[in-house]
Amino acid sequence: MKLNEGDFVKLNYTGYLKSNNFCIDTTIEEIAKKQNIFSKEFKYGPVTVCIGKNNILNGIDKNLSDKDEKESFELELEPKEAFGEKNNNLASVPFNQFKANKVNVQIGDQIMYNEKPAFVKFVNNRIVMLDFNHPYAGEIINYKIELLGKVEDKKNQFIALVINRLNFNEEMFSVELNDNIINFTINEKELPKQFQDEFEKYVKESIEIEKINYSFKK
């Protein structure tokens, strides 16, 4: 059966830099260990994405439609379809700004600055140079994709949207589905009402539900 936009599909992926065949990312633990990129903090295993919802790199997302639901294929993604073109997206920030906030920065650190991720490229006692490019910006990426089948269960579809949209791990929440009403318990402090409404709208664009009941444990 062919996949279409709006379908949920479970898949594995592995990405390599075309320039030197270095493995940058994978959902498969065995490959991560073999390629010496294994991380205990990363939960390995297939991921579920909703096609057309930017749950995965744009270059992968747009190539999922019209594929068989169980199919393996390879992609070569240009920078604009992967992690973006590399540009002079740099900022020089006074060192005292970090010192005043008791933030210790070192070359190579990834930090948030003005709500944007950045990498520390240079530090001295006067300035901190930040690079807002992704580490793989400008690189062509080769991906191996393994499609494992559609996800039809509405509860699992919702869980996928939570993980992909809110960046939660499964220990941070629980879900119950009763008569098209989702009871969504978050093990964190309460989300702002506007954020709750925006997420519910996002979910209803992908899943036919009546409403989301939120509850919080902190």
TL;DR?
This protein is α+β, with helices and mostly antiparallel strands. Helices cover 19% and strands 34% of the residues.
List the helices and strands and how they pair.
Layout lengths: L7 E10 L5 E4 L2 H6 L12 E4 L7 H4 L10 E6 L12 E5 H6 L9 E4 L2 E8 L3 E5 L9 E10 L3 H13 L6 E6 L2 E6 L6 H12 L6 E6 L2
Parallel strand pairs: 11-12
Antiparallel strand pairs: 1-2, 1-3, 1-9, 4-9, 5-8, 6-7, 7-8, 10-11
Can you put this structure into words, describing what you see?
The chain has 218 residues and is an alpha+beta fold. The longest helix has 13 residues, at 154-166. Strand 11 (181-186), helix 5 and strand 12 form a beta-alpha-beta unit. It folds into 3 domains: 1-84 and 137-152, Chitinase A, domain 3 (Roll), CATH 3.10.50; 90-131, Thrombin, subunit H; 153-218, Alpha-Beta Plaits, CATH 3.30.70. Helices cover 19% and strands 34% of the residues.
CATH topology of the largest domain: Chitinase A, domain 3
Query: Can you tell me the overall shape?
Result: globular
Radius of gyration: 20 Å
Low-pLDDT residue intervals, each spanning 5 or more residues: none
Structure class: alpha+beta
CATH class of the largest domain: Alpha Beta
Number of H/I helices: 5
Task: Give the termini separation.
Answer: 44 Å
- Report the sheet-strand fraction: 25-35%
Order of helices and strands: EEHEHEEHEEEEHEEHE
Give the fraction of residues assigned to helices. 10-25%
Mean pLDDT: 94
Secondary structure tally: strands: 12
CATH architecture descriptor text of the largest domain: Roll
Describe the main β-sheet briefly: 5 strands, antiparallel
